Amino acid sequence: MGGTSIAFAGQGAYARMLHDTLAGEHIQVGQLIIPGAIQPGHPTQGPDVLAGRLWDLHTHPEEFRVFAEELPLA
């Protein structure tokens, strides 16, 4: 658990740096946090729901990090 936490922190920091640096060039970087497993039919972690969350990130480029259990941005 500790090893993945360190890796996650590094990945998140790097992705955030890319998000901030590349926004002026209209290059979008975002992070969708999915705690646990992707589960078909799950109200917040089903594949169709997560696809919608990814679309939210695409259509709201100012957002960097979105969590699977949050309500849609739209």
Structural overview:
Strands 1-2 form a two-stranded parallel sheet. 46% of the residues lie in helices and 8% in strands. It contains two helices and two strands. The mean pLDDT is 85. It is flat.
Quick structural gist:
By secondary structure, the chain is mainly alpha-helical.
The main pleated sheet reads as: 2 strands, parallel
User: Which residues form runs of ≥5 with pLDDT under 50?
Assistant: none
How large is the radius of gyration? Answer: 13 Å
Estimate what percentage of residues fall within beta strands. Answer: 5-15%
State the shape: flat
Q: Strands of the largest sheet, in order across it?
A: 1-2
Put simply, the count of helices is 2
Percent helix, as a range, is 40-55%
List keywords for this structure.
74 residues, mainly alpha, two-stranded parallel sheet, 2 strands, flat
